[in-house]
Amino acid sequence: MMYGEQLAFKRSEAGDALRVSLRTVDYLLAQGTLRGRRIGRRVVIPKSEIDRLLRRDTPIEHGVAPE
């Protein structure tokens, strides 16, 4: 599937696009880090939200000493 052409994603599709589990998508939605929209009974995540999340400056903490 070509994710670049979609305007919005189902929760499972957002997880696939971000390479995270559905549980992580639900956590991000509950935390407010990722914002979704309810359309009827379905929650969709706009592509702009996924792009915004990926552009955030998030430090990676893996025990690597800074240079």
SSE layout and pairings?
Blueprint: E1 8-10, H1 11-18, H2 22-31, E2 37-39, E3 42-46, H3 47-55
Antiparallel strand pairs: 1-3, 2-3
Quick structural summary:
This protein is 40% helix and 16% strand. It has 67 residues and is of the alpha+beta class.
Give a structural overview.
This protein has 67 residues and is an alpha+beta fold. The protein is 40% helix and 16% strand. It is built from three helices and three strands, in the order βααββα. Helix 1 packs across helix 2.
Which key features would you list for this structure?
67 residues, alpha+beta, 3 strands, 40% helix
Q: What's the end-to-end separation, in Å?
A: 39 Å
Give the strand order, joined by hyphens, for the main sheet.
1-3-2
Which structural category fits the helices and strands?
alpha+beta
The biggest beta sheet is recorded as: 3 strands, antiparallel
The average pLDDT value, as a whole number, equals: 86
Enumerate the spans where pLDDT stays under 50 for 5 or more consecutive residues. Answer: none
Assembly category:
single chain
Report the β-strand fraction as a percent range.
Answer: 15-25%
Give the helix proportion (percent range): 40-55%
Report the total helices.
3
Following the backbone from N to C, one meets helices and strands in this order, namely EHHEEH
- Computed over alpha carbons, the radius of gyration is 14 Å
